[in-house]
Design a protein that fits this description.
The mean pLDDT is about 95. Helices cover about 35% and strands about 20% of the residues. The longest helix has 22 residues. It is elongated, with a radius of gyration of 22 Å. The chain contains eleven helices and 15 strands.
């Protein structure tokens, strides 16, 4: 197989701090190997619609700490699910992807994103698309890797927010509920809550009841603690809601995901109805968790992943994903990584919270 001359790169799904650091590393390493790099705007939409921009050293200068993605992103899905069979069926968009890559002379793709974006790359492999994946999601729920780009930065934002909210909770004797992201896994909630000193942490992995939360807060009152901080993941499941996540609306995105949200306000209302002596107030961090500069950890992780992705392309190791195992960056098959999605929070972290007396 001849060595690739032109690499295409795209960024899909929700943005995360550190994506730009990965783009910078890809461009610089590829250029050092004599390869050209082009970027497709707005994720898979750019490949479908042939929306391409050259990426050279000047284009990635100064973007190392910058959040978001200079290429833009979207949740475009070139595949559709057949309602009758539930299986993924290729559409005309796949043919357009193949035409774009051929017309533009793109020998290989690097897809940076979460399980949906990487899932498309994996499904395109049987169609002859040679792709390598880089995991990025603040939810950290991609299998096969210890950490994904963006999680550490989001964790820092949540921890700082909890530090700031503690003073107001203490001063006004309130139960402050902080809703964070985490559709299927509670990585942000559990680790952010532990780092920020939360008193109750609610994650998708363990359904909760309003009565249990109320009892935990009342125990703090009995101990003389006249305030509490509750961290709840957007995908947390209350038994009163049938142990299902609360959807903000009935619409779903191109990958079939409903938009979650509102569990924090629902919990506040239920606690008030249950007669909680503390006044509950809600803070929804939402997109603040994704914004801002990348932490040093994410900049370094993204840089290592970017370089590793180019090396995989050079070696012809496709349908694979860069991953962090301990301190080593390794390659794992995309099929293996996707089979582990969503990656749940390990029991050891849930036990850590319980050992600290956190609900």
């Amino acid at each position: 197989m001849p060595e690739p001359k032109r690499i295409g790169v795209l960024t899909g799904g929700g943005d995360s701090p550190g994506i730009n650091a990965a783009l910078r590393a890809i461009v610089r390493r590829a250029r050092g190997l004599g390869m050209e790099v082009v970027g497709f705007r707005d994720g898979w939409r750019g490949v479908v619609e042939d929306d391409l921009v050259p990426l050279g050293p000047a284009d990635v200068a100064g973007i190392l700490p910058v959040g978001g993605t200079i290429l833009g992103t979207s949740r475009t899905n070139p595949f559709q699910k057949d309602p009758a069979t539930g299986s993924w069926t290729p559409t005309s968009k796949v043919d357009r992807i193949l035409e774009t890559l051929k017309r533009r002379g793109v020998d290989a793709l690097v897809a940076i994103g979460g399980d949906d974006t990487l899932g498309v790359a994996h499904r395109l492999a049987p169609h002859g698309v040679r792709a390598v994946g880089i995991p990025q999601t603040i939810d950290n729920d991609i299998g096969g890797t210890d950490y994904a780009i963006g999680f550490h930065s989001a964790l820092a934002v949540v921890t700082e927010a909890l530090d700031r909210l503690h003073t107001t909770a203490h001063a006004h004797h309130r139960a402050l509920i902080v809703e964070v992201m985490g559709r299927d896994a509670g990585w942000i909630a559990i680790l952010g809550g532990l780092a920020g000193g939360a008193d109750v942490i609610l994650v998708p992995e363990e359904p909760f009841s309003v009565a249990d939360v109320k009892r935990a807060l009342e125990r703090r009152l009995e101990a003389g603690r006249r305030f509490s901080i509750i961290v709840v993941a957007e995908g947390a499941r209350a038994v009163e809601l049938g142990s299902k996540p609360l959807a903000a609306e009935t619409r779903v995105d191109a990958f079939g995901h409903p938009q979650l949200g509102g569990i924090g306000y629902w919990l506040a209302a239920e606690l008030e109805k249950a007669g909680l002596p503390l006044t509950p107030r809600v803070t929804v961090l939402a997109y603040l968790q994704r914004g801002g500069v990348a932490t040093p950890f994410d900049r370094l992780l993204a840089t290592r992943f970017g370089i590793a992705a180019v090396e995989l392309v050079r070696e012809g190791k496709y349908d694979a994903m860069t991953a962090l195992h301990g301190t080593a960056v390794v390659a794992v098959p995309l099929a293996e990584a996707l089979a582990g999605c969503p990656k749940p929070v390990p029991q050891e972290f849930l036990e850590l919270a319980r050992n600290l007396g956190v609900r």
